[in-house]
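A reminder from the course coordinator: this example appears on the midterm review sheet, so study it carefully.

Given structure:
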């Protein structure tokens, strides 16, 4: 450990096994029912059910990808990935969000086609299979709700929410078609569900991109952090603050801390770490202590190099 750099090296422990378990069973249930729905659509000649089966197959892939991300995120840090692989969860969330946009676009396109050219649908069979799908999706949503709340599990939940709302829409559409024979209700409800999902998908993508661009977490005010750090006894000022998200639940900070007396650093450091963790949830901290004389000497040296 150097005189000027003191690091908090260990990342907080992540409960990967529970997250993996809560993602594994949703994959199994969703994939299993996708086969059931595909067979139901084949035997009832329902294009709506076959389309929804395709949607569930894509959701199974999304859940499997989320499960894989939760597993690989637990791999220890190495000399090639010194922060570990936890950020792969953010990458997978970005991929799942992009896939969700494609699914929404596909459903809207198909809905427009069906409004123009309605397809005959067997309302009774659609209602039965949609109800079974609703039960399966409620079970899957319950499992995901128990998982660790991170951007990866939220992306997986977004796909399940799409299936859940799709099942409700199919159930309602099946009932309307069964009792009234009005076919346009199916594509109309599909478009309505897509509008609801679009807002959540865009928010998820925006958050994933913000993390990958190492933006300051939205719930943290940089000025408030700087003010709190400068309020610690023995600190003259703080500068060069950088705050970003390493992975879900892991927020990092680096900063230069100007001290009134360098000998007081060993008292300042633990107080500042505790304050950052308790007040702002910043739990991976790297701080560089400096004195007023050191900063003035460094700035003078830099200025001389620029003029030379």
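Designed residues:
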């Amino acid at each position: 450990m150097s005189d000027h750099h003191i690091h908090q090296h260990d990342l907080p422990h992540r409960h990967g096994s529970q997250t993996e378990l809560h993602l594994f069973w949703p994959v199994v249930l969703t994939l299993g029912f996708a086969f059931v729905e595909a067979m139901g659509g084949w035997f009832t000649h329902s294009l709506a059910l076959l389309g929804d089966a395709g949607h569930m197959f894509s959701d199974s892939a999304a859940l499997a990808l989320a499960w894989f991300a939760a597993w690989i995120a637990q791999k220890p840090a190495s000399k090639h990935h010194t922060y570990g692989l936890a950020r792969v969860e953010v990458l997978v969330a970005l991929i799942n969000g992009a896939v969700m946009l494609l699914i929404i676009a596909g459903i809207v396109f198909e809905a427009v086609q069906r409004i123009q050219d309605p397809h005959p649908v067997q309302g009774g069979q659609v209602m039965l299979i949609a109800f079974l799908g609703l039960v399966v999706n409620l079970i899957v949503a319950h499992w995901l709700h128990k998982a660790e709340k991170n951007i990866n599990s939220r992306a997986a939940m977004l796909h399940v929410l799409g299936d859940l709302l799709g099942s409700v829409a199919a159930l309602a559409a099946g009932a309307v078609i069964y009792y009234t024979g009005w076919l346009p209700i199916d594509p109309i409800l599909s478009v309505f569900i897509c509008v609801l999902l679009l807002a959540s998908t865009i928010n998820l993508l925006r958050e994933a991109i913000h993390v990958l661009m190492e933006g300051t977490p939205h719930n943290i005010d940089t000025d408030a952090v700087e003010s709190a750090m400068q309020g610690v006894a023995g600190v003259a000022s703080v500068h060069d603050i950088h705050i970003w998200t390493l992975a879900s639940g892991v927020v990092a900070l680096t900063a230069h801390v100007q001290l009134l007396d360098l000998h007081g650093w060993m008292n300042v450091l633990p107080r500042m770490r505790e304050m950052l963790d308790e007040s702002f949830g910043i739990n991976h901290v790297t701080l560089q202590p400096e004195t007023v004389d050191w900063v003035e000497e460094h700035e003078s040296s830099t200025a001389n190099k620029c003029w030379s």
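The chain has nine helices and four strands. The first helix runs from residue 16 to 44.
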